[in-house]
Amino acid sequence: MSDNSMLDRAQRFLGALRHCQVLGMQVHNVDSSGLTLRLPYSTQIIGNPETGVIHGGAITTLMDTTCGISTVCVLPEFEICPTLDLRIDYMRPAEPHKDVFGFAECYRVTENVIFTRGYAYQDDPREPIAHVVGAFMRMGKGAQGDSGLKQNIDGAGA
């Protein structure tokens, strides 16, 4: 799949997730090495009002979404791939008033499971806020969920 096709698919998938729209998440970059999403800093995601530090749940949402959308970028056709397992190791708190970026790659695709890994960062990917590994179950092409979702993600509904 071309980088433009992956970008289009990732943007359409992200646009179908209401909670990500509310959080203002955006596709920052996608190519054959992986997917990067951007979570803008906002008062809605502050976990500690005294310090302005972002709530860990917002970072978890970013990383689960980044890993999940990375799966649709590696598959030739859209499949629903729910999260089976997600582990996040927090290295340090995110700095207040700065956007957070989440990067994920699919490092193994099997018939039944897709394995992902990645990290969250702010200014420098070499200084991560958190590391993540995840496993996503392949439901197969026949499991479409919302009948319009596949067409929307693949661009047929556009």
UniProtKB/TrEMBL annotation:
Domain of life according to the entry: Bacteria
Keywords noted in UniProt: Hydrolase
Signal peptide feature range: none
All residue ranges annotated as the Thioesterase domain in the record: 52-128
One Pfam family in the UniProt entry: 4HBT
Molecular function via GO: 1,4-dihydroxy-2-naphthoyl-CoA thioesterase activity
Gene Ontology cellular component annotations, sorted alphabetically: cytosol
SUPFAM superfamilies: Thioesterase/thiol ester dehydrase-isomerase
CDD domains: PaaI_thioesterase (cd03443)
InterPro entries: HotDog_dom_sf, PAAI_dom, Thioestr_dom
Name under which the protein is recorded: Uncharacterized protein (TIGR00369 family)
Organism: Pseudomonas fluvialis
Organism lineage: Bacteria, Pseudomonadati, Pseudomonadota, Gammaproteobacteria, Pseudomonadales
